[in-house]
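In this supplementary section we document a worked example of the pipeline. Step one takes a protein sequence of length 304 as its only input; no multiple sequence alignment statistics are reported here. Step two produces a three-dimensional model, which step three serialises into structure tokens for compact storage. The input and output of this example are shown verbatim.
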Amino acid sequence: MGLIAVLIPCFNEEKTIGKVVSDFKEALPEATIYVYDNNSSDRTVTIAKETGATVCYELQQGKGNVIRSMFRQIDADCYLMIDGDDTYPAKHAREMVDLIMEKGVDMVIGDRLSSTYFEENKRPFHNFGNKLVRNLINFIWKSNVRDIMTGYRAFSKPFVKLFPVMSGGFEIETEMTIHALDKRFFLKEITIDYRDRPEGSFSKLNTHKDGMKVIKTIFSLFKEYSPLKFFGWISLLLSLVATVLFIPIFIDYVETGLVPRFPTLIVSCFAVLAALLSFFAGLLLDSIIRNERKSFEIKRNNFK
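The serialised model returned by step three reads:
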């Protein structure tokens, strides 16, 4: 049996952390429970220690920074990540771990959106944001992932050790999903129950601010992982602008033999040049990305 690490990033979760640790100790008695405290000002650390968790610290604020430290510092064969707010029940833990340990899955995603999330979650903008992000990513990457932003996941060792954590905040789950899709890791989703936070426990997620960060992350990663598509769409848009501007000028020239609007013609020409530059930039970056994918596959094959 391999080593199992349960990873719990925490910031001011004194209301729930004791129950989360106890529940996962019962569900996975052979696992080591790690609570990574992110500058909590309440009794989170004390309660986590009292319930038997191994407490570590990350002083850089933000969930992405916590997960970066977790992935760097902890060595295991299977990693189960869970939030410390008691919104995800431990009863799914064994199934998720078994998929990693016995079936060769690289990332198991706990799908909330197909079960109780929309009934339990009382924040309509969160519900809208989850749907928007899911539809956007599935459209761009031609995938069918049902829950992009869930905090309940299990990972294989190769995924954890080869994943470059770039995000600092709550957009980390989106980054994980996109990386897994782009690098063709073996993904598996299971439907899980979801319950809203208990009374007295408050979300650290800012719906609008963090939502904009997630959207920004999607487009940034789209540019980095699929540059030909990204710059190809820009090239197409610029070409359409150039065409719309040029057609009336061309009609006037055919009818009169004159070009009465030189400024518009100049703008149209610059739009065409910009479209060509964008297209060829996409081609060049796509070649670089393809070579990077080949290098990644070699690293993955040689990973021990």
